[in-house]
Design brief:
There is one protein chain. With 214 residues, this protein is an all-alpha fold. The chain has one domain (2-196): Alpha Horseshoe (Serine Threonine Protein Phosphatase 5, Tetratricopeptide repeat). 68% of the residues lie in helices and 0% in strands. It is globular. One of its GO terms (molecular function) is glycerone kinase activity. It holds the Pfam family Dak2.
Length: 214
Amino acid sequence: MGLTVTHIAAGVALAHARMATLEQELNAADSRLGDGDTGGMLRRVLDLMAAQRMDGIDDVGVSLGILAKAAAAATGSSLGTLLATGLLTMSKKTKGRTEVPWSELAPLLEQARDAVMARGGAKLGDKTVVDALDAVSSAVAGAGDQAAIRARAVAACDEALVRFRNEPCRMGRARMYADKSIGMDDPGMLAFARPSRASVGVVREARSACWTRQ
């Protein structure tokens, strides 16, 4: 079995639930290097994404497109725009498919990464969400099952945070505090990494949802 709309909806629900405790952590991290609103922004995005109804939709690309539009509508922030860009890119690549093999996830993430880089102007190594996305896309390459992808993705996010923690931020508002940012996590990377831990339960949630509908 590959990635389906059921998995996507379950992942959004779990990430949304995670924001109950994550919002303030992200705001605090951002307040040291930015406006202090990353947590609030991500909560608004996930609030709207979680409100989207996927009942009767089995097209992976269509579901990702719906989430991209929700992300764009929820906020005008740069990070929210990049999230929408990545989702829209993956939507275009998967439209018309009811299931996407797990082995195709890495190239899909790579295409999303490239689109985000083109839209935001960041380069690999700038200590941004792009570096976290790149780490995950590289880590899941060659993985053909859900368990391996979940484990590799979470580990890759954690490793990326550690790797870049002692580097300066080179993009966004945080670049104005380049020296101060050394020793701190980039808020955008955190906003990508922390909700990804919720994906550990995606397959369990997806299977439960399928079982309930039977």
